[in-house]
Amino acid sequence: MSAKKLNLKDKYRLLTRDLDWEYSYADRKKAFPYEEFEGIKITDWSKWEDPFRLTMDAYWKYQAEKEKKLYAIFDAFAQNNGHLNVTDARYVNAIKIFLTGVSPLEYQAYQGYAHVGRQFGGAGARVACQMQSIDELRHVQTQIHAMSHYNKYFDGFQDWTHMHDRVWYLSVPKSFFDDARSAGPFEFLIAISFSFEYVLTNLLFVPFMSGAAHNGDMATCTFGFSAQSDEARHMTLGLEIIKFLLEQHEDNVPIVQKWIDKWFWRGTRLLSIVAMMMDYMLPNKVMSWKEAWEVYFEEAGGALFKDLARYGIRMPKFVETTEKEKEHISHQAWWIFYNYGHAAGFHTWIPSDEEMDWLSEKYPDTFDKYYRPRWELAKKMEAEGKRFYSQALPQLCTTCQIPMGFTEMDDPTQIAYRSSDYEGEKYHFCSDGCKHIFDQEPEKYVQSWLPVHQIYQGNCGGASVEEVLRDYYKLNLGADNLDIKGSPDEQRWKEWKGVA
Amino acid sequence: MTYEVTVEPTGDVIEVEEGQTILDAALRQGVWLPFACGHGTCGTCKVQVVEGDADLGNASPFALMDVERDEGKVLACCAIPESDLVIEADIDVDPDFEGYSVEDFTARVISTVDLSPTIKGITLKLDNPITFQAGQYINLEIPGVQGSRAFSIANSPSDPSIVELHVRLVPGGAATTWLHETLKEGDELSLSGPYGQFFVRKSDVKDVIFIAGGSGLSSPQSMILDLLEQGDTRQIYLFQGARNVAELYNRVLLTELAEKHSNFHYIPALNAPTAEDQWQGFTGYVHEAAIDHFDGKFTGHKAYLCGPPPMIDSAISALMQGRVFEADIHMEKFLTAADGADSETRSALFKRI
Ligand SMILES: Cc1cc2nc3c(=O)[nH]c(=O)nc-3n(C[C@H](O)[C@H](O)[C@H](O)COP(=O)(O)OP(=O)(O)OC[C@H]3O[C@@H](n4cnc5c(N)ncnc54)[C@H](O)[C@@H]3O)c2cc1C
Ligand code: FES
Ligand SMILES: [Fe+2]
Ligand SMILES: [Fe+2]
Ligand SMILES: [Zn+2]
């Protein structure tokens, strides 16, 4: 018989391991300078199991096919004036948040994976990260193309990269990824591949994608499915990195646990914006945030952490707090935006009577008791021509950068304040989770670029808030911001739909 | 009309009957291919057709994409050959898997003994010799019972005309009740085998730990007999779990083996000994006996687990906390129809666990 043919695994092995050079005249440690400082111990890179065995030519073939299908749908969407098929003009504000808050994270992911794809000593890990890096670049590109159609018809899409780098609430997602990318390569993978892409991804993508499907937005829905087909690979990378680190050395276990604690909490804070999107911004609701949290975190995450317990890993710290927060967080977040609607790059509104009934039904223990009265009051004031906007700039949490509006979870009438002193300065936090994260690495978080501080320090131009919004954030005042009611978006929508 | 299918990279050749799927034929002929759902929805059994034509059968469009169809990929669990084929599968050739072919046998009962109040030992003589790897199992047909039932072979492969089974009576179980109450010497039964990926990875020289619960002694007994017969010198530890002394069967046999072979260590554990038992040995669950013996540190061992799913679950946790991981843990879970019923959410962290 002739020599045995190679199987796919061996072929992939040859492809990757051939990239593993012997360091005969150079110092290996200098070639991979970031591999040790986090304290992670790798004893044998050959134990890395390639999470997906995809050769480069197969990769391009698959991706080309996906692109072809996707752009055919985008073209059809544009030709058929697809924007007219969405449920109503309010819906589009959800995807303004996506374009300004999430798509730039795809770009950050592209940069982050390109960076760590150079830094790991193991060739398998390097190749996996490089492939994901290209995926993420594709994601951001397809999203920009999908959204460019909406940019022709609605306000708030025009300066999304600029806004992402400057606007106060967009510093929440931006600082999340900055934090991950400025960490070491192993922490980056635990943060993004494991905690975010594996544990929490369904809470980001499912709401946006099914939200799009339920609200007639074919473009967003399709780029979502196309991106999701890459996610199976990204999620397996998340699983491989955690298994690999936990199996390589027992000293890695407490380090990984610390990172899981940190990134789980950072992730839940980031998702508060998704929570309010689901409960308040979608004209056709998919499910409540609370239900999504129960299905995608409590059930699926529960099974995962049951398996991880075999390695000596426990549930993330502060998971008990999230169990209470699922009842409150979406209501409090939308309330913050309603109060600062003049400073946002999208429109806000008071939930309609039917929407409030839906919220009562989904949140029987909290909505009528704590949140309905607020909205009824806002409605009354609006009817009397007294729509209010908070003029004072809010204090921000030093860790998650969200305005300090979240409450104690055992007393939803009491705003939660935590603080730490570090080198003679006081730092403020929205929660025990955020304080804990700061206390672990104060030297990192004292450098946070907090938008409100920056305004007060005069680093964002103009003397007045209005100047900052107009000149520094480049918000198109009177068009991008304020209530949907009376906005140019709403006027155009009514004209297209022929309603008065 | 049959077609010949060559499976790369191993070069194995299988005969596929008219209308038979590639997967069914492969498994029947001892060629292992990855599979899970068995009916075209999960995509686990995807293979590349290199030469020849096949009908795709009921492959779901989500499990087999359009591009993949164009590239000649098929799902082995539903693809039916329309000519001789060469296929390429994503298989790790386990260097220790012998791949003996599955055959049908007629067997005569030559003895039945009550090994314990709940476990019956059944010895069968086969019409033809069976070639199997110690640790594998057979599927047994029981008169008047729908479908076959899996039982592991407890004897060493050195006598290929004999199959010895240890059958635990499952309360309310159709087949095991019949085997316990109706079966008698001289009866004839049909069975097929051998099946399974539970066998000793002999090429790996690490010392081995067996953890057996209840009738889960069957496979380990066969594997240990085989190792010792072959003069294997690695250290072999057997932890056998039972409720009490009456349930602790084959104790004499195993104690004698341990006396004869200095590299075989036998550690029985009882979790509920009675007062009359006057038990001097380890009291507690079988995985706790292993923790106790190794002081919780298992590094450098391979582990083979066999028995009821809850026992296996505890043993895996104990081993992993003692830093032996998935790649070195092999197991046979004695699943019954009751286990399939509760399908709780599963994480994707482990492949085989
Ligand atoms: C690979 C393998 C090897 C094995 N080796 C051995 C061995 O060596 N020795 C051994 O003793 N056992 C072994 N087993 C276990 C053995 O196969 C089962 O105990 C046997 O199949 C039970 O068959 P039964 O007909 O008696 O029970 P069944 O009639 O199949 O019922 C089993 C149990 O499930 C309940 N049940 C039935 N149907 C359902 C349903 N739809 N939903 C919920 N509950 C249901 C019944 O009430 C009963 O309690 C092995 C199993 C596997 C998978
Ligand atoms: S085994 Fe699931 S598709 Fe074939
Ligand atoms: Fe992405
Ligand atoms: Fe991703
Ligand atoms: Zn915070």
Which features does this protein show?
heterodimer, A: 500 residues, mainly alpha, Ribonucleotide Reductase, subunit A, 2 domains, two-stranded antiparallel ribbon, 21 helices, 2 strands, globular, B: 353 residues, alpha/beta, Ubiquitin-like (UB roll), Elongation Factor Tu (Ef-tu), domain 3, Rossmann fold, 3 domains, six-stranded antiparallel sheet, six-stranded parallel sheet, 8 helices, 19 strands, 20% helix, 31% strand, binds flavin-adenine dinucleotide, binds FE2/S2 (inorganic) cluster, binds fe (ii) ion, binds zinc ion
Describe the fold and architecture.
The complex is a heterodimer of chains A (500) and B (353). Chain A is globular. In chain A, α3 (56-79) packs parallel to α5. Chain A has helices spanning 8-17, 28-31, 56-79, 92-119, 123-151, 160-166, 171-181, 185-214, 218-248, 252-270, 272-281, 289-308, 319-325, 329-339, 353-362, 367-383, 432-440, 442-445, 451-456, 465-472, 488-497, and strands spanning 418-422, 425-429. Chain A has 2 domains: 31-349 and 388-497, Ribonucleotide Reductase, subunit A; 354-381, no CATH class. In chain A, β1 and β2 form a beta hairpin. Chain A is mainly alpha-helical. Chain B is α/β, with parallel strands linked by helices and 353 residues long. In chain B, strands 11-10-13-8-9-12 form a 6-stranded antiparallel β-sheet, with helices on one face. In chain B, strands 17-16-15-14-18-19 form a 6-stranded parallel β-sheet, with helices on both faces. The two termini of chain B are 40 Å apart. Chains A and B meet through α1, α3, α9 and α12 of A and α7 of B. The site of FE2/S2 (inorganic) cluster (FES) has 13 residues of chain B, from loops.
